[in-house]
Amino acid sequence: MNSERLEVWCAGQQWCPVTATAAIIGKKWRPVIIHRLLEHGGLGFSALQSEVDGISSKVLSENLEYLEELHLVDRAIVSERPFRVEYTLSDQGKSLRPIIAAMGNWGMQHLSPPEGQPVYQEVVSSTDD
Questions:
Q1: Taking the model in full, what pTM does it have?
Q2: Is 79 a domain residue?
Q3: 31 domain-assigned
Q4: Mean pLDDT of 25-49
């Protein structure tokens, strides 16, 4: 696993690890992007956008760039013509699996789907199978 630590703005504060982690993955689409990459492995941009229902190309691109800057997502050029890239989670990104699983488990226990909607299913396994 990549042992590179991310620089934080709140270093030295007891609450910093929780707050900084929430700031990194807490933006609306980031946990969904991470979840889809955990679930499917590598995905091209269009396939990832299809998996993250409702996200615009611009917002997906901005979030992927941010996650790449933090070394949570890797981007590989698959072909030049036609130009295709594939996004995967780095080892550091994969280490978010238990956090995403815990978020999903909490949601399944404490949130109710709208009436007429299917009951939530397990979001992601907490271990890498």
A1: 0.85
A2: yes
A3: yes
A4: 95
